[in-house]
Every structure is written in structure tokens, then in C-alpha cells.
């Protein structure tokens, strides 16, 4: 068997391991093993890459130092990655994933750029060995030229898009407000046209490397202008989409260097990201185009806050709410992004403990887009040692709300807004929501009556069976737990 | 020119570009299909680890980075390649470690 066959066999093994890794992700018990298999596949692929022909050729020419260099670069990256992953607080997961994702995209762009550089410069080099290394001719409109252009573009969009997403999730000051310049659609259109022209140019003249880098620059700007207008609640969609892009960039890089493991792993990730994007969009009842280009319909609803809230809000204190909870036999807690902001997950766990000690059943209703990334609330509550079995998905728990004594809404707003069901004109009309209003009593823990991300008033707050508890999420829950334990 | 002797060794290119493209396209589409089939079955509550796990796997581009960085080149190409290795390794290691941390929280606590 030739050397190359062995390398390809190793790549095949790695690809199978990746597929198994995804397969094992379907259950919480097997997912840990899945992650190990994925890592093992990656290790095998990396090892095999060190025996690739171009690497071996340069080893025989220059001695061991190219390998040493690769090793040093790999270790530097690995250590940075590990330190980031271990040090970053668990609540910052969405931005951490966004950042890592961006690095993957940037790496793909650089791979394409480096390969293009090697091809153009080695072919014209006087060194015979260098020439031998680039036997593939650099011809226009080949798969190489097209794939290089696409890798450069997608990678650049991924990198800058992810950086902007990171800045938004990290809530850096200058990124807090969504960028809604009236001309942004025209700017994006111009950038898109420039992108198409440059892709054509790179394909027609692949040996002009400057065109490639120009494309990367335009892609970078596009990555920013596409992500900047997207607001906080749409972040789960963006994270999924960028994840998908980074996979597609890796797959395109596989076309550039003719490597099947890149294509397989890249397309698996691409598929996973696309599916999650579709799920998130469906959960918000928005089209992907709407999320990407719409921004959020700036309060087209004609209902004013006053007409909904005036005179109907019932505010309650700790004692009153503790009394309601004392009599409850079934309580459902509905967490939202506010819970993550207030860092109240451990407090919630204590409240649940106090309730369970009194014989109350406590469950958690998780809306698919609660939080800032897919499954965000699950991770947050799992961090507070809340058993996995008690976290119920929307379709699963909605029918049980009529039998629920108390629903406690903490830091959620739009995902429990009954207007989505009743008012066909509101921006979130038709969005599947958690039917908390059907519970006997609803307690809403919130700092103020400020609207949620959709910018519309929430009739739930004014409903007859709703008690508002105005306070910071964490303090409110701690006080409540204390009052309940005294009683 | 002893280097020239190496030429025939690497000049054996049997596959024409079009069939090479179709081979990779086949792999791409089939892998997409498998991806769709497998990932459809991941429950909602595991979506965060799925996102970060697939994120780690998208770091596979490190293979490409190693190949281009290790190849004989006239300086700049190697530099780009090495930078790509660093970035891709951050993605790979960071991704797997984050996913592990997350999954560790989901597993039942042994006390």
C-alpha cells in the first residue's frame, strides 16, 4: 500500500469518527463519549496530515525544522484554545463559541491564501523542487480557482461576523445598539455586487493574488455589515448560521487542497448549522431572510403601553408571593435571558429545593429561543445542578399549564407574550410561545415594565391572574426562598 | 540539477480536474446528507453542546493548514500557513474542551 493510501485511510477513519461523534450527541449520556470520539478523529487527521506529500517533501529537503515549526504553531494554538476554554465563565458560552468559530473561519481563509500564494510563486520559481511541488497548473475557472475564491469569502465573512457577534454578546458598549442605518440595504447590495465581481475576477485571473485579498477584504466588511444590524434576540440564529459558514469554509478549503476529510467534516458542520438555523427560525416564526435583512420590525404594532397596562398591573411583595407559593402543588419555572444576565440560576435552584421540601412539584419550561444561543437555558440550569429530566421542552409542557398552580417567569418576556396568539398584527404574531397565561397564577419577576426584544407591550403582565414582582432576578429569588423557608 | 530527478515522481497526475471536482462534490453532497439525517435527531436541550462540538470539528481546516504550512514555499505562504495552524488549533482545542465542560454539567452528579 502506498503512503498516500495509508493517509487516505487515516482520513476515512477520522471522518467515520466525526459522524459517530454527531450520532452520539443525540443523548446526554452518550454525548461525552461522542465528544471524545470527535477529538480522537481530529488527532488522527492531524497526525496523518504530517505525512502528506508536500510536508514529507519539505522534510527531505530542509531537514526536521519545518515539522518543529508546525509543532510549535500547533502547541501555541492548542494552549491558547485550552486556556480560553477553561478560564472563560460558563455563562459566557455563547460568545466563547462565536469567537472560536471565527478563528476556524479565518484559518480556512488563510489556508486558501497560502495555497494560492504557493501555487503562483512556486510555479514561477527557479527552484526545481518548488516547481515540482506545484505540478497542478494554475488555470482560470478551474475548481481550484473557484474553491479558493469561495473559501476566502466565506472564511472572511465568518471571522468578522463572529467577532461582531462576540462583541454584541459580550455587550461591549459600542455594539449594544443594533446598527440600523437607513442605507444599509444599499450598502449590502453594493458589497454583494462587488463580491460577485471579485469572485469572477479571481476565477478568471487566479494568478493575480491581489484580487483574492481584495475579495477577503470585501468579505470582511460584508461580515460586519450583515451582523451589526442583528439584535440580541436573534443571536441564536446568527450563531447557528456562522457555525454553518465555518463548516462550509472548511469544506471549500478541502476543494482547494483536494482533501476529502476537510470536505466531509466541513459539510457535516455545515449541515448541522443549517438545521439549527432552521429550527431557531421556526421557533421564532421568522424567515431566515427576515432575520438577516429585516432587523426587527420597529414596533409596527399600534398598541401603546398605556392602553395595555394602565391600572391593570398588580404588583406584589415577597410575603404575598411566598403565600401563593405555599399553597401550590405544581410550580413551573420559565427562565429567559434575564436569568442569565442576573446570574440567578443557583438562586433558582435553591428556590426549587425549598419548594420541593414542601412537597411541591417543580419543573422548568424551556422555550427553544430563550437566551442567546441554541439550548442556552439548558446549559445555564445544568450548571446549577438542576436535573436534566426536569427541563421540559415547549411542546411537551404547554398542555400542562392549565393544571399548573403557579408559573414563575424569570427574565423572559417575548416568549411568553400571549399577543403572539391573539394579535395578528403584532411583530411576533404566530410565534410559538409558552402558554403561561393558562396557569392559575403567574408570577413575573422583572425589573420594570420595559418591553422585551420585540419592543411591544406584554398583555400577560396586565392579566387578572398575574402578579408582578419588580426586582432584580437574583435578589428577588433569594428573598423569596428565605420567606418561603420561614413560613 | 539533481532536483530535476524528483520531477517525474510528482508529475504523475492521473486524474483530470473535472473528475476530481466531481469526486469531491460527491463526497460533499453525501456527507451533507448524512449530516442532515444524524443531526435532525439531536434533542433541543443538547443544542448548545452540539453547536460547540460541531464548532470544534469545523477546526478540521487545521489539516489543510498543516499541509500548506509544511509545504515548500517561498516564505509568505509558510507564514500564512503557520498563522492558520495557530488559529485552527485554537478552534479545535478550545471547541472540544468547552464542549467537554458543558457536557460534564449535564451528566448526573456522583456524590
Characterise the protein shown here.
The complex is a heterodimer of chains A (487) and B (111). Helix content of chain A is 61%, strand content 6%. In chain A, α17 links the parallel β2 and β3. In chain A, α1 (3-24) runs antiparallel to α2, α5 (93-123) packs antiparallel against α9 (209-227) and α7 runs parallel beside α9 (209-227). Chain A has helices at residues 3-24, 28-49, 53-62, 65-87, 93-123, 128-133, 143-169, 184-204, 209-227, 235-256, 260-284, 288-294, 305-309, 318-326, 337-342, 345-357, 376-383, 394-397, 419-422, 473-486, and strands at 330-335, 361-366, 391-393, 406-410, 441-446, 466-470. Chain A has 20 helices and 6 strands. Residues 296-302 of chain A have low confidence and may be disordered. Chain A folds into 2 domains: 100-298, no CATH class; 305-486, 3-Layer(aba) Sandwich (Rossmann fold), CATH 3.40.50.1220. With 111 residues, chain B is mainly alpha-helical. Chain B folds into 2 domains: 1-41; 44-111. Chain B is 71% helix and 0% strand. The model of chain B is unreliable at 1-12 (pLDDT under 50). Chains A and B meet through α1, α2, α3, α4 and α5 of A and α1, α2, α3, α4 and α5 of B.
Strand content of chain B: under 5%
End-to-end Cα distance of chain A: 77 Å
Strand content of chain A: 5-15%
Rounded to an integer in angstroms, the radius of gyration calculated over CA atoms of chain A is 27 Å
The number of helical elements of chain B comes to 5
Largest sheet of chain A: 6 strands, parallel
Unreliable runs of chain B:
1-12
Strand order of the largest sheet of chain A: 3-2-1-4-5-6
Stretches with pLDDT under 50, minimum 5 residues of chain A: 296-302
Helical coverage of chain A, percent range:
55-70%
List the domain count of chain A as a whole number: 2
Number of strands of chain A: 6
- End-to-end Cα distance of chain B, whole Å, is 71 Å
Number of domains of chain B: 2
Radius of gyration of chain B: 20 Å
Largest interface comes to:
A-B, 133 and 93 residues
H/E topology pattern of chain B: HHHHH
Amino acid at each position: 500500500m502506498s503512503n498516500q493510501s495509508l493517509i487516505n485511510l487515516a482520513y476515512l477513519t477520522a471522518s467515520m469518527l466525526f459522524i459517530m461523534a454527531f450520532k452520539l450527541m443525540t443523548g446526554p449520556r452518550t454525548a461525552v463519549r461522542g465528544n471524545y470520539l470527535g477529538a480522537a478523529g481530529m488527532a488522527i487527521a492531524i497526525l496523518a496530515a504530517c505525512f502528506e506529500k508536500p510536508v514529507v517533501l519539505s522534510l527531505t529537503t530542509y531537514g526536521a525544522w519545518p515539522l518543529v515549526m508546525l509543532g510549535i504553531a500547533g502547541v501555541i494554538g492548542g494552549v491558547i484554545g485550552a486556556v480560553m476554554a477553561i478560564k472563560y465563565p460558563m455563562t459566557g458560552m455563547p460568545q466563547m463559541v462565536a469567537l472560536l468559530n471565527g478563528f476556524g473561519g479565518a484559518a480556512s481563509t488563510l489556508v486558501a491564501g497560502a495555497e494560492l500564494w504557493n501555487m503562483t510563486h512556486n510555479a514561477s520559481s527557479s527552484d526545481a523542487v518548488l516547481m515540482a511541488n506545484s505540478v497542478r497548473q494554475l488555470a482560470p475557472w478551474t475548481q481550484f480557482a473557484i474553491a479558493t475564491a469561495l473559501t476566502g469569502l466565506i472564511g472572511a465573512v465568518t471571522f468578522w461576523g463572529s467577532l461582531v457577534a462576540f462583541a454584541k454578546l459580550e455587550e461591549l458598549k459600542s455594539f449594544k445598539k443594533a446598527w440600523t442605518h437607513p442605507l444599509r440595504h444599499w450598502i449590502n447590495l453594493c458589497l454583494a455586487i462587488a463580491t460577485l465581481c471579485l469572485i469572477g475576477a479571481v476565477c478568471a485571473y487566479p494568478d493575480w493574488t491581489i484580487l483574492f485579498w481584495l475579495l477577503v477584504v470585501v468579505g470582511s466588511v460584508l461580515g460586519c455589515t450583515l451582523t451589526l444590524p442583528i439584535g440580541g434576540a436573534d443571536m441564536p440564529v446568527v450563531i447557528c448560521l456562522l457555525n454553518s459558514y465555518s463548516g462550509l469554509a472548511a469544506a471549500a478549503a478541502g476543494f482547494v487542497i483536494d482533501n476529502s476529510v476537510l470536505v466531509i467534516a466541513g459539510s457535516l458542520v455545515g449541515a448541522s448549522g443549517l438545521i439549527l438555523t432552521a429550527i431557531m427560525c421556526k421557533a421564532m416564526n421568522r424567515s431566515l431572510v427576515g432575520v438577516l435583512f429585516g432587523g426587527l420590525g420597529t414596533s409596527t404594532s399600534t398598541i401603546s403601553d398605556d392602553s395595555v397596562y394602565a391600572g391593570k398591573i398588580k404588583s406584589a411583595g415577597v410575603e404575598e408571593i411566598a403565600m401563593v407559593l405555599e399553597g401550590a402543588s405544581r410550580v413551573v419555572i420559565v427562565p429567559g435571558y434575564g436569568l442569565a444576565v442576573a446570574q440567578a440560576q443557583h438562586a433558582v435552584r435553591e428556590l426549587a429545593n425549598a419548594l420541593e421540601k414542601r412537597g411541591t412539584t417543580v419543573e422548568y419550561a424551556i422555550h427553544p429561543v430563550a437566551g442567546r444561543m441554541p439550548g442556552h437555558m439548558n446549559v445555564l440550569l445544568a450548571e446549577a445542578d438542576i436535573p436534566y429530566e426536569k427541563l421540559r421542552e415547549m411542546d411537551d409542557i404547554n398542555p400542562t399549564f392549565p393544571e399548573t398552580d403557579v408559573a414563575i417567569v424569570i427574565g423572559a418576556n417575548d416568549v411568553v407574550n400571549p399577543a403572539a396568539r391573539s394579535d395578528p398584527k403584532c411583530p411576533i404574531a404566530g410565534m410559538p410561545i409558552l402558554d403561561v397565561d393558562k396557569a392559575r397564577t403567574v408570577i413575573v419577576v422583572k425589573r420594570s415594565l420595559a418591553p422585551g426584544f420585540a419592543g411591544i407591550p406584554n398583555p400577560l403582565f396586565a392579566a387578572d391572574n398575574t402578579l408582578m414582582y419588580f426586582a432584580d432576578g437574583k435578589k428577588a429569588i433569594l428573598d423569596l426562598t428565605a420567606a418561603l423557608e420561614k413560613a | 540539477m539533481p532536483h530535476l530527478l524528483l520531477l517525474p515522481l510528482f508529475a504523475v497526475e492521473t486524474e483530470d480536474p473535472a473528475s476530481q471536482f466531481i469526486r469531491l462534490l460527491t463526497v460533499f453532497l453525501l456527507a451533507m446528507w448524512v449530516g442532515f439525517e444524524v443531526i435532525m435527531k439531536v434533542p433541543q436541550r443538547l443544542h448548545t453542546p452540539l453547536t460547540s462540538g460541531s464548532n470544534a470539528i469545523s477546526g478540521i481546516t487545521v489539516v489543510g493548514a498543516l499541509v500548506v504550512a509544511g509545504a515548500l514555499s517561498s516564505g509568505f505562504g509558510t507564514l500564512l500557513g503557520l498563522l492558520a495552524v495557530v488559529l485552527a488549533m485554537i478552534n479545535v482545542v478550545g471547541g472540544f474542551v468547552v464542549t467537554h465542560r458543558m457536557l460534564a454539567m449535564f451528566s448526573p452528579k456522583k456524590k
